[in-house]
Specification:
It is globular and about 75 Å long. With about 475 residues, it is of the alpha+beta class.
Length: about 475
């Protein structure tokens, strides 16, 4: 589940379509609670009861309890310890190890000295692209563990024939436990999907995807830098190998990220059926020849974008693309925003509205100048006053900010001391500066919002067309706070 925040009101409205008994927030909410305490205790009881009922209905609608119980049965952990992935691996792995006549050592009283390399990200050149197929490796890291026999036992006990992995690390070919565990879990997930058991399918996915992180954790008794490194470098190798094969067929790989490739040059039907089957057959043959292993990798068709836009990286040469940031237009007209301001909660709703509408016009090939000017004029006219609220998190207590005090902390410090012990603050920018939403009464600083929330979003797209926000709006950039 993904929500703008995890406040009860937000989750209840988005999941259930209903909310708390008191709609007001901030000082007004506190005042209403105090009024009910003095004048209408039955209404106050109803407010408290509604909160409890909302929680129960959220759990029922989301089936969270069933998911937690299923995860507990798979991992062998009590409900309150499900967040601990290391004991879950021990529960699954140690009995198999003991049956083979081995005893595992205790977790080392040590800290991880190095982090394993991450997944491969192939940067896209900034700009607009058409007809992009997104191909994704299903459960990439668990499949790599299974394909290459990456396993604590095969690493520490090198008996018989050995296998040299893409990272250069050697492991035993025969001694393997974790690959079998992954195979059993994949079988359970496949059956769960066939039976429509969403909770079991999700529980298996969470457990399998934790193995890589557990092997890279210094709290794990099997931790060794080589193990997670073997997994991620094998993933990089597979992505590069697949990219080379696709390009040998005349296709263009414009972007890639860890387990997915964005391919230009093929129709949707071809990508969805014949292309993924061809790649999977190629990898099976390639890995058999070069590593003498049987491939358990499965490339799938994920989605098709009629158009895509990749922004240029900030503060670098305009020819360089950014990682994990793009907008894609699907065939049904829906847009996917990845890493963009539209999906970031530290940007205002007016920025979200503007960026979404901006790309609607952009993907239609329309001129953007008139839309931008009209949007800015409406903002300055007060049409979006209810969309100008910033909500930002605090990484420490307000009184711990001593040197550079950011805007949201300056807003928080205006509240009474008793109300400052929070992990986030909502505020607006008035001409006098940042003001907490509960105390907002002055004139809003519209130039600030245009300069900080509209300009940077517009310029990202306008630069690709050789235009600029200043030329369109005729507004000089304000000095920074």
């Amino acid at each position: 589940f993904s929500f703008s925040n995890f406040k009860l009101e937000t989750v209840a409205q988005e999941l259930l379509g209903e909310g708390k008994d008191i709609e007001a927030s901030g000082e007004q909410k506190i005042a209403e609670i105090e009024r009910r305490f003095r004048e209408d205790k039955i209404a106050l009881a109803h407010y408290n009861l509604q909160d409890s009922l909302l929680v129960l209905r959220i759990f029922e609608k989301s089936q969270l309890v069933n998911l937690l119980l299923t995860r507990a049965s798979l991992s062998g952990l009590p409900l309150e310890l499900l967040h601990l992935s290391v004991p879950a691996l021990d529960h699954l792995y140690l009995p198999h190890l003991h049956r083979r006549g081995f005893v595992a050592f205790d977790p080392l009283d040590d800290f991880m000295r190095e982090s394993a390399p991450g997944g491969l990200v192939l940067e896209a050149r900034p700009g607009r692209y058409e007809n992009i197929a997104v191909l994704d490796f299903k459960s990439l890291y668990p499949s790599i563990i299974r394909t290459f026999n990456i396993d604590p036992l095969s690493y520490y006990v090198k008996t018989g024939k050995t296998l040299q992995l893409p990272s250069g690390i050697s492991i035993a070919r025969e001694e393997n436990i974790l690959g079998g565990i992954v195979g059993d879990l994949l079988g359970k997930r496949r059956l769960a999907k066939e039976q429509g058991n969403k909770e079991l399918s999700q529980a298996v996915k969470i457990l399998m995807n934790s193995f890589y992180g557990v092997l890279g954790s210094s709290n794990c008794r099997f931790y060794n830098y080589d193990l997670p490194t073997a997994i991620t470098t094998s993933g990089q190798y597979i992505l590069k190998t697949t990219k080379s094969y696709l390009e040998s067929k005349g296709l263009k790989v414009i972007y890639g990220d860890t387990d997915s490739l964005f391919v230009q040059g093929c129709e949707k039907q071809e990508a969805q059926f014949s292309l993924v089957q061809e790649v999977n057959a190629y990898l099976q043959k390639y890995l058999s020849i070069h590593f003498e292993v049987s491939s358990h990798l499965e490339l799938e068709f994920e989605k098709y974008y009629g158009q895509m836009f990749f922004p240029a990286a900030r503060s670098v040469a305009a020819s360089e693309g950014t990682k994990k940031r793009y907008v894609g237009l699907k065939e049904n007209g829906e847009m996917d925003f990845v890493g963009m301001e539209f999906v970031r909660t530290d940007w205002t709703d007016v920025a979200h509205d503007f960026q979404y509408a901006l790309f609607e016009h952009y993907f239609k090939g329309e001129a953007l100048g008139d839309f931008i000017k009209q949007f800015v004029a409406a903002l300055k006219n007060g049409d979006y006053d209810d969309r100008l609220v910033y909500t930002k998190r605090l990484s420490k207590r307000a009184d711990e900010y001593t040197k550079n005090i950011p805007l949201h902390v300056r807003a928080l410090l205006q509240l009474p001391k008793a109300q400052q012990n929070v992990n986030s603050i909502s505020y607006v920018m008035e001409l006098s500066g940042p003001v907490p939403l509960a105390l907002a009464q002055g004139e809003l600083d519209y130039d600030h919002y245009v300069d900080k929330q509209i300009r940077p979003l517009a310029d990202v797209v306008l630069a690709e067309r050789g235009e600029s926000f200043d030329e369109i709006v005729g507004m000089k950039q304000l000095s920074l706070f």
